[in-house]
Design goal:
GO molecular function: 2,5-didehydrogluconate reductase activity
Order of helices and strands: EEEHEHEHEHEHEHEHHEHH
Organism: Corynebacterium simulans
EC number: 1.1.1.274
Radius of gyration: 18 Å
InterPro entries: AKR, Aldo/ket_reductase_CS, NAD(P)_OxRdtase_dom_sf, NADP_OxRdtase_dom
Protein name: 2,5-diketo-D-gluconic acid reductase A
Strand order of the largest sheet: 3-4-5-6-7-8-9-10
């Protein structure tokens, strides 16, 4: 199985499918990431606020995989937006790495008014070599426009809540028009929905002999979205990676796209309303 590579506008490449560790118990992180690496994942997505960067780092250190074959993402937490360099150094120390492949501003926190300054610092961190690519997470178009107004660097990705019940393609395609790739967090609805039980998902699953989760992952992949489903179950970790032996038809894709609930489908906070430190 070969994970497609997507070209970022800064010239770097990113694996389209990865493994996420959001809400993964720090005590279990090393074990689960090691299993993901064994299965074949090479893209690992973590964040300072997850509290499990050290577990990710141990799994990397104990693997026999050359560093250049891995793609590691971490994120700048909200209370560190005025000191990104120190925050990155702390993350690198916990990860046991000299650099990360992608560093993201985790949330814009518009009330705090620091995300533009944080972005300027990220640009300098990229120049230093400690970060290969820089991007954002949970940004709205108005936040992107502020970055482009005050700097000459556009984020390579925007990581947002995205699943069949929350799609927002008009806004996401506007990001893409700026050269920004879209990453999905909560791509399977984070287990808070009935996505695995509805006909639009279960019927293709039966047809192709796969799980409902695999169908939704294919829907993301065929929409050119980068994603990293999370699981604490070794069988599901492998299953979520085994998604390249079938392809959804246009009608099957459209049926899942028609499930969009707009803002009613949002499970996490709206970026304009989240300002936690």
């Amino acid at each position: 199985m070969s994970v497609p590579m997507m070209k970022l506008h800064d010239g770097n490449e990113i694996p389209q499918l990865g493994f996420g560790v959001f809400k993964v118990n720090p005590e279990k992180t090393e074990e689960l990431v090691a299993e993901a690496l064994r299965v074949g994942y090479r893209h690992i997505d973590t964040a300072a606020v997850y509290g499990n960067e050290e577990g990710v780092g141990r799994a990397i250190a104990n693997s026999d995989i050359p560093r250049e074959e891995l793609f590691i993402t971490t994120k700048l937490w909200n209370d560190s937006q005025t000191n990104a360099a120190e925050a990155l150094d702390e993350s690198l120390q916990k990860l046991g790495l000299d650099y990360v492949d992608l560093y993201l501003i985790h949330w814009p926190c518009p009330e705090n008014g620091n995300y533009v300054e944080a972005w300027k610092q990220m640009i300098e961190l990229q120049k230093s070599g400690k970060v290969k690519s820089i991007g954002v997470s949970n940004f709205e178009l108005e936040h992107l426009e502020q970055l482009e107004t005050h700097t000459s660097v556009t984020p390579v990705v925007n990581q947002v809540e995205l699943h069949p019940y929350l799609q927002r393609w008009r806004e996401l395609d506007a990001f893409r028009a700026h050269g920004v790739k879209i990453e999905a967090w909560g791509p399977l609805g984070q287990g808070q929905t009935d996505l695995f039980e509805i006909d639009e998902v279960t019927e293709p699953a039966k047809k192709y002999g796969v799980s409902p989760a695999q169908v939704i992952i294919r829907w993301h992949l065929q929409n050119d979205v980068i994603l990293f489903p999370k699981s604490a179950n070794p069988e599901r970790i492998a299953e979520n990676f085994d998604v390249f032996g079938f392809e959804l038809t246009e009608d099957e894709m459209a049926a899942i796209t028609d499930l969009d609930l707009g803002e009613e489908g949002r499970g996490g906070p709206h970026p304009n309303e989240f300002n936690a430190s």
